[in-house]
Structure formats: C-alpha cells, structure tokens
Write a structure and sequence with these properties.
Elements lengths: L3 H18 L8 E5 L5 H9 L4 E4 L2 H12 L6 E4 L8 H7 L2 E5 L2 H13 L4 E6 L13 H12 L6 E7 L8 H21 L7 E3 L6 H6 L4 E4 L1 H4 L4
Helix pairs in contact: 2-3, 4-5
C-alpha cells in the first residue's frame, strides 16, 4: 500500500494545527504537493486521496507527466515553482494555472506573449530573494516595483498577479527563517496598499522543514514534497 494518502493526511493535520496556533481561519493555507522527480502514478494516488494542487520545477518533466495524467480524464491543478527560462514559457503557460517563480520583467512579457497566443489567463507570483542561499527572485525592490506597476497599468492583460513567493535560507536558525518570511509579508502589505487594483494576497512560503513557521508568519501557500511523496523517485 502506498504511504501517500497517510502522509497527506498527516501534513494537512499539521497545517490545520499551525493555522489554529497562529489564530488564523481554518483552511486559510493551501497545500502545493511538490511532485517533481516522482512518477505520474504518485500524483494520481495523491489526487485519489483528495489533493488537487501540485507543484513542479522542470517544465519538460511536468508536461509529460501532467499530459499523461490529464489524458486519463483527471484534472489536477499545476503550479510551476522552479526557475523558468523564457524559452520554456510557452509550455509552462500551456500546462499550468500559476507560475510562482516569476523573477524578472522580461519573463512576464514572455508569459504574456505565450498566453495571448492561446487566449489564456495565467496567474503569477512574484518571486523575491529574501535568503542568501537562494539565487532566484527579484533582488532589487525597484525592479519588482516596476514589474508590479506595469501589471497594474494593464500592460500584460493575460497575466494575473496574485502575490509573492520566496524561499527561506537553508539554516537551523529560526530567527533568520522568520525574518525571511516576515520581510516578504511586509513587502506584500506595502505593495498591496500602493496597488489596490491588484489582488496580491497570496504568500507562497514554507516547505517541508519550515512550513509551520511560515504559517505563523502569514503564508497562504506551502510547498511540500518529501513529507508527502518520500525521497525523490
């Protein structure tokens, strides 16, 4: 018997407990089950256990896997959570409902171009660099401001900004992890106040090792793989 249903149940239970501890409404945090390096069958088992939202890093792997799953009449939601090259934007737009790892203006322009071709609206999160280990994400607040401003002006009609994403530093120091998450929350609050026409409520932060801290700091999406699917397939 697969351990995936039991693992999912345990993780969801921990998420709900963390919500409660933080004084947040039940079900205010969504789970992205990170299925990279795991086969289509693992995703199907998670779907059958009630999980509908998945995350993948590599476009080629994700496209093959999710096309196979959808060809069976199943309808998982997919977020792209890994660094995205412009030449992979076409496939990313085709297979995903959200690209969480948008880290530069040129990428938004390419996503818009590809989404317009197939007349599809696609959600994005702005990835922000808040921890030293992660190389990805907007580093300059001025560049991030420009990207959000252009979205607010309607420059990218097929792109729907929904909030922000980050990766905390890989450390045992809880204060550094909290600082990373709190900085993203503060940035979100600042930009939401400046651009009220956009809904920037989402905060995708927290992974297998630190999601409970992330929930305490305001996360609305946690990205968890190993604790659900086990070590990489």
């Amino acid at each position: 018997m697969s351990e995936i249903p039991e693992n999912l149940k345990n993780i969801l239970s921990k998420i709900r407990a963390a919500e409660k501890k933080a004084g947040r409404p039940q079900n205010s945090v969504r789970l992205v089950a990170v299925s990279k390096f795991h086969p289509a069958q693992a995703v199907i088992e998670a779907l059958e256990a009630g999980q509908s939202l998945f995350g993948e890093n590599r476009i080629q792997e994700a496209a093959a896997k999710f096309d196979e799953i959808r060809s069976q009449g199943l309808a998982p939601q997919l977020h792209i959570i890994g660094s995205l090259q412009r030449n992979k934007a076409k496939e990313a737009v085709r297979i995903a409902s959200c690209i969480e790892s948008v880290d530069r203006l040129e990428l938004i322009a390419e996503i818009e171009k590809q989404a317009a071709k197939i007349n599809k609206k696609i959600e994005i999160l702005f990835e922000v660099h808040t921890g030293e280990e992660s190389k990805a994400g907007f580093v300059s607040e001025a560049d991030l401001h420009k990207a959000i401003e252009d979205c607010a002006k309607g420059e990218f009609p097929h792109v729907v900004p929904k909030g922000f994403m980050t990766m905390a530093p890989f450390t045992q120091d809880e204060s550094l992890i909290r600082r990373s998450f709190a900085s993203l929350r503060n940035l979100r609050d600042k930009f939401q106040a400046e651009f009220p026409s956009l809904d920037l409520a989402e905060l995708s932060m927290g992974m297998s090792g630190d999601f409970e801290l992330a929930i305490e700091e305001g996360s609305t999406i946690v990205r968890i793989g190993t604790a659900i699917f086990g070590q990489r397939g």
